[in-house]
Specification:
Layout: H1 11-15, H2 19-38, H3 44-55, E1 59-60, H4 61-68, H5 72-84, E2 88-92, E3 100-104, H6 106-127, H7 132-148, H8 160-164
Antiparallel strand pairs: 1-3, 2-3
Length: about 170
């Protein structure tokens, strides 16, 4: 089979057309705006953990990791940090004594209340250069992209239903 050659582009032109490079840059921009709007009192990952614990009180660390798409060791380490800061309480699960259940403390609830408006401001700043129509298309395509590549992740995101079933393996999309 004959090998097809592409016309040579400059290295920078090729780099700036790579989805991975652009997504890395988008992540940098997002983290920067997060710190600008929320401050450095909580990281984006810590915010996601606090938000999910708020939405799912007594969630165990394994299920939490599946619900926000992080690996279980990262969830455990971050939960330990948040507990040390007095933002969450970790207790032995009543369902499975091998697991730790997580719940926000009053301080964690207050921090979440204090930061959520900054997260919404960050979202507004990120999307504001786009028209309303472009924002909808961008978000729809971003969700679709993440969904279609979910199984490629080291920590696939699970739905609430999938994560609630003990022993269930990650479903194929």
């Amino acid at each position: 089979m004959k090998k097809t050659t592409r016309p040579r582009q400059s290295v920078s032109a090729d780099l700036y057309d790579q989805p991975g490079h652009l997504m890395r840059r988008a992540h940098q921009i997002t983290v920067s705006l997060f710190q600008e709007e929320v401050g450095e009192v909580v990281s984006p990952k810590e915010f996601a953990i606090l938000r999910m614990i708020h939405e799912t009180p007594d969630v165990d660390q394994v299920r939490l990791a599946r619900l926000i798409g992080i690996d279980t060791s990262s969830a455990a380490l971050t939960a330990a940090k948040l507990e040390k800061r007095g933002l969450i309480a970790r207790t032995v699960s009543t369902v499975d004594r091998r697991l730790l259940s997580l719940r926000l403390t009053p301080e964690g609830e207050q921090l979440l209340d204090d930061t959520v408006s900054g997260v919404y401001r960050m979202r507004e700043k990120l999307l504001s250069p786009l028209t309303e129509s472009e924002q909808k298309v961008f978000m729809r395509l971003l969700r679709k992209f993440v969904h279609l590549h979910n199984d490629e992740s080291r920590a696939p995101l699970w739905t609430q239903v999938d994560a609630a079933q003990p022993g269930k393996r990650q479903p194929k999309s």
